[in-house]
Amino acid sequence: MTRAEEFQELRPLLFSIAYRILGSVGEAEDAVQESWLRYAASPTAPVSAKSYLSAVVTRISIDVLRSARVRREEYAGPWFPEPLLADPYQDPERSAELADSVSMAALLLLERLSPLERAVFVLREVFGFGFAEIAPAVGRSQAACRQLAVRARRHMDAGRPRFDADRRDGERLAGRFLDAFRNGNLDGLRELLAADVRLVADSGGKAPRWGEGVVGAANVARTLAALVGPFTRIGGTVQAHRVNGQPGAIFRDRDGRVVNTWTLDVAGGRIQTIRTVLNPDKLGHVGPVADARAVLREAALARRAAG
Question: Taking every annotated instance into account, which residue ranges of this chain make up the domain RNA polymerase sigma-70 region (predicted)?
Fold first, then answer.
C-alpha cells in the first residue's frame, strides 16, 4: 500500500481526532492536510502509519487549540463548536463513546480542559489508544499522560451530560418536538420541554441572536411558536437532521441556503437544551449560507403583515 493509500484509509480517524480536540470542522480539515504534508515529506516510513499520523495530527491540533484559546475567550456571545453532520470515523465497538464524545455538550465540556488534557482524553477515552502511543503524541512521559488522563476524566465525569439511554426514544421525542414546532403548537411544544430548558445561540456577533439566554418551558415555547410562522411564510424550511450525533435540525431559506442549525439535548423524556449555531463562519461546510439578518428582517415584516 502506498503512503497516499494509507493516508486516505486513515483520514476519517485523523479528522475525528482533530475535530474532538479543536471543535472546528475547518481547523480539523487543515490539521489533517498538514499531517499528510508531513507524512509525505518524511524520509523514512514509520513502523505504524496509524500511530505516526495520529501523533502528528494530535500535535498539530494541540498547537492550533492553544492559539485558538485567546480568540474563543474574546468571542462575542456564547461559543459553540462548528456543527458536524456526520462523523466520518466508524467503529462499532466504540460507537457509543464516539457518539457521546462528539455531542455539543461534551465538546463544550472538553473546552474546560487544558489542551494536553483534552488531547489525552480524546486519544485514551474515545479512541482507546494506549499510553505508549499517547506519550510521544503529546510530548510527555507515560506516567505524566496517566495523570493527565485521570484529571481529564475527573473533570469530564463531574459535568458529563446525561442523554436518554435509548437513542431511538430520543429521536422519536425530537421528531414530535419538531412537528409541534413546524405547526406552531404552543401546548405541544411546552409539554415536550423540560421545566428549566434553555435556548442558547452562537451568532459570534455576525448574525441575530436567536434565543440567546431564553430559559424555562413557557418562555422557550412562546419564543419558538412566535418564530416558526413568519419563517415558514417567507419560504423557510426546517429539516430534521442528526447534528453532532444528536437529534437536530437545519434551517434553510426559500433558496435552500443554510440559516442555522439546532442540536437538541434529550434526557428524562424532555428537551433539556436547544443550541443553535447562527455564525455564518461556522456553517459554510453545511452548505451555501443565507444572510440570517435579512431572513429575520423579512420574517419580522411577514409577522407584522399578518397582524
Answer: 7-69
